[in-house]
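Deliverable D4.2, example record:
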Amino acid sequence: MQYTAQELNQAGQYIKNPLTAGTPYTFSLFRVPNSTGASPTLSGSGYFTYETVRDANGFYASPIPLRALGTHENADGANTLVSSSYIFSYELNTNGSEPQTSSFTFTPDIDIPISGVMFRATGDYDMMAMPIEDACGTPQSFPGGQSYPTTLNISLGTSTGTVGCLLDPLGIPDRFIVTWDGSIVIDTGYISANPSTYSLGGAARNSFTNALTGKIAPEGGGTYPLPPGGSGNNIIQSDGYPQVFARTAPGLINFTKNNSTSIATVDAYGPIGGTGWSVKINCPV
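Output generated by the structure prediction step:
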């Protein structure tokens, strides 16, 4: 889930999606570019804080929920962890593997409900927390920015039936891969409302290929550019990059859920900066 610098500033932002006990969540904080554009470079340190919501009197409710307990891993440009059972904080720097970017992984010990904790950050950082947990039938939208991929974990429940998936990339090409019960059930390939603009010979082909250069192909076939070939919605054109196809939105792409496995995962690949998309995975009927 995306959090803007404005949301994280000062008092902070209630979490927008629940966190599930035992699930590793990656928090990535981006210094440049950012939503405000107020500070194009980082001249010092910033800070990120995760805090259990206090009661009306400013205290942690009794009994104190141990919502900040968990496992911390993979700190990259996020330093000097200070933590307790109800709050933790990282110092953010520019020494991560990506310029002006800090990240870490946190696995909570208990389930964290929506609005159960606050996120805050100083230093004009935008943030992405993934995977995103949500229930079937709940629309998710990504307002804009490069993400490769954004991961959504959707709870479908134990019922069986047809699952209708709205996977809408809008104008800039995105690719959606839906995985359920250990298998890929939908792979749209790269789709767009303007496919000819981004396919071979199109006016925006260079922006598409430049954004993909060096990125790992989701199907595990190495990094772009790739050898030409393929079939269906995954065709690599003669320049070594994917063909872009027409989106099906607002129509649905369906798959059949034939057992009680609940979680479906959507990986949305948006390599071009400024992309935006919408996703809704319906409950089985």
